[in-house]
Amino acid sequence: MISVEFLITSLIVVLIPGTGVVYTVSMGLAQGRMAGVLAALGCTLGILPHLAATILGLAALMHASALAFQLLKYAGVAYLLYLAYATWRDRAAFSVEAMPSRTARLGIVIKAFLLNILNPKLTIFFLAFLPQFVTPGTLSPLAQLLALSAVFMLMTFAVFVVYGLLAYLFRKAVIESPRVQSWLRRVFAGAFAGLSAQLALSER
Hints:
10 helices
């Protein structure tokens, strides 16, 4: 059921840097190892509604409805611009941190979740991607879709955790250099702004 082709293709898809990767890396670098893991968790949870929409057939409705796609797209654009502004303004982001508070941990997960759930292209992607790996003529296509979705989510979480931990490994050098801190803050803010422009210009 879970083919090598599916695993390889999924790994390539997950490894490609996008909004979730940028956010996870920024959290791992700015707030430490736990923040990177929490961002990875939030990003993974954020693809769950898109997978559910694909499985339930709602993705086909969104694909057909230009209005639904545009509304979700511009909500995503607005949120990315908010993240760009917040990152640019946050002067304390790279301070030496202790364990994030419970409220801060929840905030990281929620921000990451919103980042992915407000990206309508994910629903369209899964609608086109997952059915290719369902065995033709199978008696249980729903079971196969659920299994494929579960594997994709586990792979997403694992890869994003690695991204966050790699960012954490560079954290000490960042903390010790105010100039590097300022440069990285601008880079991440610019990345979020650029991703918002890319989403705004995207077509279905």
